[in-house]
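Figure 6 in text form: structure in, sequence out.
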């Protein structure tokens, strides 16, 4: 049987084999370079669910998508939360949008009204331009106990009354967080003072007359 070697193969055929081999090698290298690694894919997937808080006063984490639902946690300003997979906006009874999160604790946070948003991407997404908010300035829910008016701090009561059950206390200059859409409540026993409901450090009512707005920054 006659054996074929490169020397007795037609020159044109040998050239075609060399070109085909080079194309296959180049294609394999291109696929290898363009295909993201498993670690990169995992990081991109995790990043897509990461958000940071934009509300200056932070966000309350609630058990359900409702401002009256029990508080299960709190996220300060510019801290990260992780959305649940398949997340979607849920319209609450007061018109605001809620979204479910998986971390730092399972629950729901308010994402604002209409075009405003309380959450932003952890890292700016490539090819996107941040849209400036045209909505109202977020309300500052942080309050500080005025040491001149209440040098010994304030009591936290179960209801808006000095005679209501004592739940805890806050020291002078300490900070509390008001409930969203808070309102001043007249004393149940007719005493000349207003109360306001708080969610931090615990749920309850506190005398509003000795509170001042927390300074920004």
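Output sequence:
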């Amino acid at each position: 049987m006659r054996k074929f070697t490169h020397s007795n193969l037609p020159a044109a055929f040998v050239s075609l084999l060399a070109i085909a081999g080079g194309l296959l090698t180049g294609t394999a290298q291109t696929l290898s370079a363009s295909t993201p690694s498993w670690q990169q894919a995992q990081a991109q997937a995790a990043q897509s669910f990461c958000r940071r808080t934009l509300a200056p006063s932070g966000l309350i984490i609630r058990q359900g998508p409702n401002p009256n639902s029990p508080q299960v946690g709190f996220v300060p300003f510019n801290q990260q939360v992780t959305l649940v997979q398949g997340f979607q906006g849920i319209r609450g009874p007061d018109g605001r949008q809620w979204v479910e999160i998986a971390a730092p604790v399972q629950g729901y946070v308010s994402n604002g009204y209409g075009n405003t948003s309380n959450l932003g991407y952890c890292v700016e997404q490539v090819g996107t331009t941040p849209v400036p908010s045209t909505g109202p300035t977020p309300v500052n829910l942080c309050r500080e106990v005025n040491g001149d008016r209440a040098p010994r701090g304030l009591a936290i009561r179960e209801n808006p009354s000095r005679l209501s059950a004592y739940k805890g206390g806050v020291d002078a200059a300490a900070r509390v967080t008001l409930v969203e859409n808070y309102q001043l409540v007249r004393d149940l026993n007719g005493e000349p003072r207003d109360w306001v409901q708080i969610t931090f450090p615990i749920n309850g009512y506190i005398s509003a007359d000795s509170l001042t707005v927390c300074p920004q920054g």
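Caption detail: DSSP finds two helices and 16 strands in the chain.
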